[in-house]
Design brief:
By secondary structure, this protein is an alpha/beta fold. Helices cover 24% and strands 30% of the residues. It contains 7 helices and 19 strands. Bound molecules: NADPH dihydro-nicotinamide-adenine-dinucleotide phosphate. NADPH dihydro-nicotinamide-adenine-dinucleotide phosphate (NDP) binds next to helix 5.
């Protein structure tokens, strides 16, 4: 790496969801001149949703991409240095940490905030991609409201799928759960909730072959049972709940991760196993995964980082 390509910064924020932008807002106001790299999906997961009705402060709701544009604008106005580009390598073995951008430039950072998020898993069907945002969603809490009194399906048999199916059942007319095994993987308590809910029908041993739809969006799904038989269900919403994977590949072997790959932090703080590296948002949170909790954890990371730098 050429020396003239190396730049030194006090704090580098990796990722541009609610966690990253909130950290940038706080650190700018603390005069710590944060530099933030936005990554391959500027704005993060919220840019793939439509209306967000549960983020406080927007009585009429707000468009997901608009909410992220607002956060970005706020961080920029306060002086954060927001850059496009992705981190391609990190070396956390000594401080300042070495961070490579787009395989070219190198930054030496006294501290790091990792807010690279998590990515919802999809089945990988072309029809699923086609209707993403038009009936296909990976977040019932975000989008369920738009399917009031309609029929929907949830794919998956884990705790998330059961939780989302139960949530959707309170809004929708009928909820199908499409489960590939002959049993649910979810905890007993969650399973019981599902089986007690009258308008949930669990379709065991089914896989989705195709999501069906027209110009208006999703209209159904074609399912194939493990015995080879087929059936079609009429639905307006197709919700994926087959897990998320945290975007932590860059940090494997350098930061302590849990069995699922999420960054481990110390108690209620954002402190990772490496001093001076802080984690915020979905990258350390397999449970809540909400924009507001991510923003809150971005604030925590900024405050932890500020204390670390002022020490
Ligand atoms: P899980 O990995 O637990 O479950 C994923 C589900 O999706 C499984 O039923 C799995 O099937 C299914 N699945 C995976 N890939 C496919 C595929 N390609 N096609 C069809 N089905 C598929 O993920 P969750 O998000 O449910 O949970 C993650 C963690 O978070 C868990 O530890 C869970 O306990 C926890 N959690 C806890 C909650 C709570 O306590 N309230 C709420 C939500 C999550 P299979 O079983 O066949 O592998």
């Amino acid at each position: 790496m050429e020396n003239n390509q190396t730049e030194e910064v006090k704090v580098l924020i990796i990722g541009s969801g609610p966690a990253g932008y909130t950290a940038a807002i706080y650190l700018s106001r603390a005069n710590l001149a944060p530099v933030l790299y936005e990554g391959i999906e500027p704005g993060g997961q919220l840019t793939t949703t439509t209306e967000v009705e549960n983020f406080p402060g927007f009585p009429e709701g707000v468009d997901g991409p608009q909410l992220m544009a607002n956060m970005r604008q706020q961080a920029e106005r306060l002086g954060a240095d927001l850059r496009s580009g992705s981190i391609t390598k990190v070396d956390l073995s000594e401080r300042p940490f070495r961070v490579e951008i787009d395989g070219e430039k190198e930054i030496l950072a006294q501290s790091l905030i990792v807010s690279t998020g998590a990515t919802a898993k999809y089945l990988g069907l072309p029809s699923e991609t086609k209707f993403r945002g038009q009936g296909v969603s990976a977040c019932a809490t975000c989008d369920g409201f738009f399917y009031r009194k309609k029929d929907v399906a949830v794919v998956g048999g884990g705790d998330t799928a059961c939780e989302e199916a139960t949530y959707l059942a309170s809004l929708c007319r009928k909820v199908y759960m499409i489960v590939r095994k002959p049993f649910l993987r979810a905890s007993k308590a969650m399973q019981e909730r599902v089986f007690r809910t009258e308008n949930i029908e669990v379709l065991f041993e089914y896989n989705t072959a195709e999501v069906l739809g027209d110009e208006q969006g999703v209209t159904g799904a074609r399912l194939v049972k493990t015995d080879g038989s087929e059936r079609t269900i009429d639905i307006a919403g197709f919700f994926l709940a087959i897990g998320h994977h945290p975007n932590t590949e860059l940090f494997a072997g350098q930061l302590e991760l849990d069995e699922e790959g999420y960054i481990r932090v110390e108690g209620n703080t954002s402190k990772t196993s490496v001093e001076g590296v802080f984690a915020a948002g979905d990258v350390k949170d397999p449970h809540y995964r909400q924009a507001i909790t991510a923003a809150g954890s971005g604030c925590i990371a900024a405050l932890d980082c500020e204390r670390f730098l002022l020490r």
